[in-house]
Amino acid sequence: MRSRKMILVADTGVLFSAVLHDGLERKVLKSKAFKFVATNGIVRELQKVLESKMAMGSEQASANIGDMKLAVVEDSLFSEKLRRADMLIGKRDESDVPTVALALAVENDGVWSSDKDFEPLCGVVRVWSSRELLAFAAKRRRPKV
Predict the structure, then answer these.
(1) Domain range spanning residue 44?
(2) Which of 37, 100, 113, 141 would be a feasible disulfide site paired with 85, CB 3.0-4.6 Å?
(3) What is the DSSP string of 52-66?
């Protein structure tokens, strides 16, 4: 029996790293073990960074983001969770509030992030590092004896 893919709310930082560097984040993003969801704000931010820092045209930046196969969730689907998310993380980093709200609002297996601001979410939302996700994916691929 095939196990389902993990659904992860992707934080901006790991997505930037996946695009900009050929490291752990890119391996996680390319893994077939995971599905990723993100906010419109994250996608807009990615678009802006790719266009400015990577000197990509708008179409090329959009194509790179499309290759990520992110499920983009409309703000209206998590807006009712913004207040709670703000209480959980707003004092540490206000820009992370929509990501936490999304994690509280949709079915998922946690947040994928390397951002230390997410650490206080322990017990509320599972936060996965790239290293943990790659170890998890490797363990799932091993044949059972």
Answers:
(1) 6-139
(2) 100
(3) HTS---HHHHHHHHH
Q: Which residue has the tokens 């998922």?
A: 108
Cα 5 from Cα 112, distance rounded (Å): 14
Query: Is residue 125 domain-resident?
Result: yes
Report if residue 64 sits inside a domain: yes
Q: What is the mean pLDDT of each run of 10 residues along the chain (145 residues)?
A: 83 91 94 95 91 87 88 95 96 94 96 90 90 91 57
Domain-embedded: residue 89: yes
pLDDT on residue 142: 57
User: In degrees, to the nearest 5, what angle opens at C-alpha 59 toward C-alphas 58 and 61?
Assistant: 65
- CATH number for the domain spanning 97: value is 3.40.50.1010
Q: Is residue 145 part of a domain?
A: no
Residue 59: predicted pLDDT: 93
23: closest CA among 141, 100, 133, 126? 133
pLDDT at 1: 44
Q: How far apart are CA 145 and CA 34, in angstroms?
A: 24
Judge residue 41's burial from the number of C-beta atoms within 10 Å of its C-beta, 0-12 exposed, 13-18 middle, 19 or more buried: middle
